[in-house]
Amino acid sequence: MISYADVEKLRSIHAPQPVVLSLYLPVPLDPVGVRGLAAEARDLMARAGADGPDGASASAVSDADRHALFDALAAQGRDWLGHTVAFFVCGELSLFEVLPLPCALAERAVLATRPHVRPLLAALQRCPDYRVAIADRRHAWVLTVSGNQVETVARQSVEGPRSPGFGGWYGLETHRTQQRIIQLGRHHYRDTAAILHRAADPGRNTPLVIGGHHDSIAGLLQALPPAVRKDFAGSFTADPHTLTPARIRELASPVIEGWVARRERELSDEISGRLTAVGLRASLAAVNEGAVARLLVAHESMIPGFVCGRCGALSTGSDQCPDWGTAARAVPDLLEDMVQRTLDDDGPVTVISDAPFGVAAKLRFPVTA
Ligand SMILES: [Zn+2]
Fold first, then answer.
1. pLDDT score of 164 more than 50
2. What is the pTM of this model?
3. Centroid of ligand 1 to alpha carbon of 369 (angstroms)
4. Taking the mean position of all CA atoms in its chain, how far away is CA 270?
5. Which of 174, 192, 212, 260 has its CA 20 to 30 A from that of 338?
């Protein structure tokens, strides 16, 4: 599956002309539907170069690139059933990258000077990789989930006293046995927490889901160091003995969906007050001034516009910078250029799906323009 490293690798690719094709293609689940993919890709590619703000097609997908794509669909189409697949193709730059995505996205084809990565960011944020920890007093199981792949990172059992159900020991002895189990439990949660701590990627906040009995969830949560606990996304209750990797993914995925929606909502709610820009006009000004601390952008639409080859200004009209359009070049999607510009400045970008604006920004400093 995809990672942020893939996005960064693609972002390093530039062509002097808009000849880099980015094609997002949902592959049907039914193998019979694969036959229609080439025709669909052909239609999408035909439209890719024709979306200039002046209505004219600036360039078209080359025959070589089109055929490379058709060949890949014929050879591998059946490997991608049920996935949306992203293709990045440019023969001139010897680029041919195919990335199956972890969640379904709408079809899209873009011809630009750089790979179009906004849908990739949307997929990474909506269907993130995550960790699951299952623990009870004797067992711990740590897994990672990436798309539909589930892998065990660690699994261990603690040898402790068996359930003190047999007769003969009463009173103090039973109390001691109970204490011993509780002790083991505590250390055991600490061990599991340590595994999670070691497995954490310090650069990325990989969300964590905890599953198990109610008291084990609470026990493990309490043992987590703050660095791990901040990634806690939620929990599900289940009897650990009945769980399989597939069932764990099934139970954890709504927890992750809820976490993603919550995070998006929190970030949208932060868009209020003085240091914010809401809407295309204000956000464009903020990007052009290098004032964006965080960009929030919807994924669904594309907005054609212009970039000035001299001052670099992004605009909706060709004559909206001090150079009066003398160096303006049409771009198929201003939102994508705003995303790229923000990432270039090390500002985080969040692709939002349900917000009262199409684009907005949290600002580093006020923008007057
Ligand atoms: Zn300019």
1. no
2. 0.84
3. 15
4. 20
5. 260
Q: How far is the CA of 336 from the centre of ligand 1 (A)?
A: 19
pLDDT tens per residue across span 218-264: 989 998 988 889 999 999 999 988 899 999 999 999 999 999 999 99
CA–CA gap between residue 295 and residue 297 (Å, rounded): 6
Rounded to the nearest whole angstrom, what is the distance from the C-alpha of residue 329 to the centroid of ligand 1? 10
C-alpha angle with apex 249: 248 to 251, nearest 5 degrees?
65
Token pair recorded at residue 54: 């002046």
Rg (CA), the chain: 26
Spacing, Cα 279 to ligand 1 middle (Å): 22
| Average pLDDT value for the chain | 85
pLDDT at 163 over 80: no
Q: Are strands 208-212 and 130-135 parallel, antiparallel or unpaired?
A: parallel
Q: Give 367 Cα–ligand 1 centroid separation in angstroms.
A: 18
Q: Concatenated DSSP letters for 319-349?
A: T-STTTTTTEEEES-HHHHHHHHHHHTT--E
Of 58-67, 119-128, 322-331, 352-361, minimum mean pLDDT range = 322-331
Question: CA angle 281-283-286, nearest 5°?
Answer: 115
Question: How far does the centroid of ligand 1 lie from the alpha carbon of residue 271, in Å?
Answer: 29
Distance 310 CA to ligand 1 centre (A): 5
At position 362, the amino acid (one-letter code) is K
Residue 298: burial class (beta carbons within 10 Å; 0-12, 13-18, 19+):
middle
pLDDT given for residue 242 in this prediction: 87
Cα 328 to middle of ligand 1, angstroms = 7
Pairwise CA distance, residues 305 & 282, whole Å: 15
120 CA to middle of ligand 1, Å? Answer: 29
Residue 233 tokens read as 């996304």
DSSP secondary structure string for all residues of 213-232: -HHHHHHHHHHS-HHHHTTE
Report helix, strand or coil for 239: coil
Range 221-231 burial, b when 16+ CB lie within 10 A, else e: bebbeeebeeb
